[in-house]
């Protein structure tokens, strides 16, 4: 079984910064990619940032230049550094990982979500 535990959400004023963390644990053999998605009230969940095993990243156009995704392979932890936050960044942020577990089963795993609220 593989679990993702997120931390770092909260309330911040527009222009401020937050850093989200997500640690993967359990019977992990290898992680293909980890990333962050977000869902605002009344909207569909959308991809924010993804980092692949080799270090390549994909960022949504809406956050390019403001958000940075990074990963610590030694601890299976992914970080999302969010700068210059805007009210439209307000959403529940979910960590996501695609992994092979110890039985070489390919899994997609989601965290429980962490709320980010940006006040104007």
Counting copies of identical and different chains, the oligomeric state is single chain
pLDDT < 50 stretches: none
Number of helical segments with 4 or more residues:
0
**Portion in helices:** under 10%
The averaged pLDDT comes out at 96
Rg value: 14 Å
Order of helices and strands: EEEEEEEEEEE
Shape: elongated
How far apart the termini lie comes to: 41 Å
Overall strand count: 11
Give the percentage of residues in beta strands. over 45%
Largest sheet: 7 strands, mixed
| Structural class by sheet pairing and helices | mainly beta
Structural notes for this entry:
It is a single chain. With 120 residues, the protein is mainly beta. It is 0% helix and 62% strand. It contains no helices and eleven strands. It has strands at residues 2-7, 10-13, 18-26, 28-39, 46-52, 57-59, 67-72, 77-82, 91-101, 106-110, 114-119. The termini are far apart. 32% of the residues are buried. The model has no long low-confidence stretch (mean pLDDT 96).
